[in-house]
Amino acid sequence: MKALEGVRKRFTKRLPGMGKLTYHQRLSILELDSLELRRVCADLLFTYKLVFGLTDINLHDFFSYHASMKLDEVTTINCTSQPANQT
After folding, report:
1. Where along the chain do its domains lie?
2. Is the sign of the CA dihedral 38, 44, 50, 52 positive or negative?
């Protein structure tokens, strides 16, 4: 992602009148979000959809919590890099 962000930084710097502005100033003027922020938002949206059953993916394949705890008591969630049923 850093490579893509670097390309975007160089491109926006070459736009007329943008050469002396910081990257964040250029993004603000162009009404763009950083690629990192866009990724975080996409991850949050996906997690929301997973939690509320708005996808065909099973929440429990990716997240687990202790059955003895109420959902509002959960302070940590163990996240796996791949679904639990795959090896």
Report:
1. 2-79
2. negative
**Cβ atoms within 10 Å, residue 47:** 15
Helical H runs in the chain? 2-13, 23-29, 35-51
77, 63 contact by CB (below 8 A): yes
Write out pLDDT tens, residues 31-85. 998 888 888 999 989 888 888 888 888 877 777 766 665 655 555 545 444 444 4
- 61 by Cβ neighbours in 10 Å (0-12 / 13-18 / 19+) ranks as middle
DSSP letter assigned to residue 67: T
Which residue do the tokens 């070459």 mark?
14
Task: Give the separation between CA 55 and CA 62, rounded to whole angstroms.
Answer: 13
For the record, the structure tokens of 28 come out as: 């603000």
65, 77 Cβ separation under 8 angstroms: yes
Residue 50 near residue 59, CB atoms below 8 Å: yes
